[in-house]
Design goal:
The complex is a heterodimer.
Chain A: E1 5-9, H1 13-24, E2 28-32, H2 58-68, E3 74-77, E4 80-88, E5 90-97, E6 109-114, E7 116-119, E8 123-125, E9 141-143, H3 144-154, E10 168-175, H4 191-205, E11 210-214, H5 225-235, E12 237-239, E13 246-248, E14 254-260, E15 265-271, E16 273-278, E17 280-282, H6 286-293, E18 317-319, H7 329-349
Chain B: H1 33-37, H2 48-57, H3 60-65, H4 68-71, H5 77-81, H6 88-97, H7 108-118, H8 126-141, E1 160-162, H9 173-185, E2 190-191, H10 203-206, H11 209-226, E3 230-232
Parallel strand pairs in B: 1-2, 1-3
Classes of the chains: A alpha/beta, B mainly alpha.
């Protein structure tokens, strides 16, 4: 397959994995990433081990990154946008480098061609500014992804308002997921386990921290999940209700209203940090790119397999990772490996 | 039903019972945003999420006999926050409509019956009504700038028909003056009617669609009779 080329769009965990898997087969890969760095969301995620590995997969992002850099079969283009792509037996495309750099005076276009294209464009986090929780209004209301980065950088949670560790944290699950009004009917899958694990990490390092979980139902799978859930019930206050509004108190705490099933009463409680577990939603450019590549997105806006698109490699276009729908890091990697094999088979049928 | 848990026989559940209600209560994912946001939740244990679930399960007797649907203020915040777009206030109103009329709490049914029979919730006779509104108009006429003010009653071909909330000809006559002075200052060509002037429609609160239809129909009749195109229905 030495003469064949594959274009991978997206340098997150799925894109890196497909690139690496194909490179092992001797396939030449060009990987385009719009951001100036590789690794996507996954590389910003924190390790969730306490006494032993939690198998969250966060460390694998770095491993995958090491696999692709200095790999002679993989050409990496970061800070690059796919400008044009067309198909005439093979795919012909044009890439613009550093499109945001206004000082570029030289021609920065780059043209190439490929036998197959892998859409590994990932997801975007739902912007919770549309929900009544004061995100971007109250400094100490953050998202689960903000917390991932915070824990990865500092090891402990710190309130953005004063840089001090919070004493009482509330997690609100399903923010923007399972929401018919937003046309987000899906469960984002990763947030229950990752939020619970981050809460355990916080509590193991600062045992005096109080943690409350507001949830609809805890969605988890895998043989380790039950133990994680049982421990959560021991260590955290688990409240089966999603709060209505968040208000700021005079001393800068965050007041949450919720209905308590057990006491059958409306409760008002204050916290000094609130973490919103936001939905995984399709990237803003997914639809546009899918149309250019001739893929019909599902009703959800993701480009995974669903009854109305039937993409799976037809015409040389493939999907890897969360561009197809919510997946964990481990699932993204598995999906990407499978995609790489599908691509390899496709190349073989074309005699490449 | 509200405080203690009780065992429900499977035979009591009848998912067909509320099938005719046009609200997607079956889509409830029990997130509890309604109950967390409701200004009345917790009063007598009121839990909108539980009410929606009871409707979904078809526990008709329990919800119809419960005090909960009558605690709801129908403010609509639950519907606003509901991620599944369930029309909870409409659901509550429909439950109220299933209650036996004699068991409707408070003065709602009494006022509504008076309105259906006499044209207004107070059963105020026509002569008394005219006496009151002309008396109020007389008081306005004594104020500077409103000399000669008269209340136009049953004026054919007026531009605007205004209904009247019964309390404005009962305990709150002062409030009538605000409306009328604005009409006067705006040189509006307005009128009120001597009969069926009632602006309230308590069938809205009791879930009685037929009564709402009758009350609205009467106002329509007045507009036709007096050949008026515009209606101000401040209730």
């Amino acid at each position: 397959m030495d003469s064949s080329n594959v274009l991978v769009i997206g340098g997150g965990i799925a894109g890196l994995t497909t690139a690496h898997e194909l490179s092992k087969l001797g396939v030449k890969v060009e990987l385009v990433e719009k951001e100036p760095f590789l690794g996507g969301h996954a590389i910003q995620f924190t390790c969730k081990a306490i006494e032993s590995c939690a198998k969250c997969g966060a460390c694998m992002a770095e491993e995958k990154l090491n696999n692709v850099i200095h790999n002679e079969n993989i050409k990496i283009l970061t800070g690059a946008n796919l400008n044009r792509i067309s198909k005439n037996d093979r795919f012909h495309y044009n890439i613009q480098l550093n499109p945001d750099d206004k000082n570029q005076s030289k021609c920065t276009g780059y043209s190439s061609s490929a036998d197959a294209v892998i859409m590994a464009t990932g997801f975007e986090p739902f912007d919770p500014v549309k929900k009544p929780y004061g995100y971007r209004v109250f400094k100490n209301v953050i998202t689960n992804l903000d917390l991932e980065r915070m824990l990865k950088t500092n090891g402990i949670a710190l309130k953005p308002s004063d840089g001090m560790p919070p004493s009482k944290i509330a997690f609100i699950q399903c923010v923007g997921s399972r929401d018919s009004k937003l046309n987000h009917l899906w469960c984002s899958k990763i947030c229950c386990a990752s939020a619970l694990r981050m809460a355990h990490v916080i509590k193991s390092r600062k045992p005096e921290t109080s943690v409350t979980f507001f949830y609809i139902d805890i969605q988890g799978s895998g043989k380790d999940f039950e133990a994680l859930y049982q421990k959560a019930k021991e260590d955290f206050q688990m409240i089966r209700a999603i709060p209505g509004d968040i208000y700021k108190t005079e001393d800068d705490w965050l007041k949450i209203n919720y209905f308590d099933n057990l006491s059958k009463a409306s409760i008002e409680e204050v916290y000094d940090m609130v973490v919103l577990s936001v939905a995984m939603i399709p990237g803003s450019k997914t639809k546009e790119l899918a149309e250019i590549l001739g893929i019909i997105p599902c009703d959800t806006g993701f480009v995974g397999s669903c009854k109305n698109n039937g993409i799976a490699g037809s015409g040389g276009v493939f999907v890897a990772g969360t561009a197809g729908g919510p997946l964990s890091i481990a699932e993204s990697i598995t999906h990407a490996v499978k995609t790489a094999w599908d691509v390899a088979k496709y190349l073989k049928t074309r005699g490449r | 039903m509200n405080q203690t848990e009780k065992t429900i026989g499977i035979g009591e559940l009848n998912h067909g019972r509320f099938k005719t209600l046009p609200f997607s209560h079956d889509f409830c994912i029990t997130c509890g945003l309604c109950s967390s946001s409701c200004p009345a939740s917790g009063i007598d244990g009121f839990d909108p999420r539980m009410l929606v679930r009871m409707v979904g399960l078809g526990l008709e007797d329990d919800v119809v006999n419960a005090r909960w649907p009558w605690i709801c203020t129908m403010c609509g915040k639950c519907e606003y926050v509901c991620p599944m777009d369930i029309r909870i206030p409409d659901l509550v109103r429909s439950i109220r409509g299933l209650r036996e009329k004699a068991k409707i709490p408070g003065i709602l049914q009494k006022g509504l019956e008076a309105a259906l029979k006499t044209g207004n919730n107070l059963a105020l006779p026509k002569e008394d009504f005219i006496y009151i509104v002309e008396d109020v108009a007389g008081e306005i006429a004594e104020e500077p700038g409103f000399e000669g003010f008269k209340v136009p009653i049953d004026k054919k071909g007026a531009n605007l028909l205004s209904t009247i909330h019964n309390k404005l000809v009962n305990t709150h006559t002062e409030d009538l003056k605000y409306w009328w002075k604005i009409f006067h200052a705006a040189k509006e060509d307005w009128t009120i009617t001597s009969e069926n002037w009632e602006g309230t429609s308590w069938g809205l609160f009791t879930g009685d669609d037929e009564a709402v239809k009758v009350m609205a129909g009467r106002i329509m009749e007045q507009m036709k009779r007096l050949e008026i195109k515009n209606l101000l229905w401040p209730e």
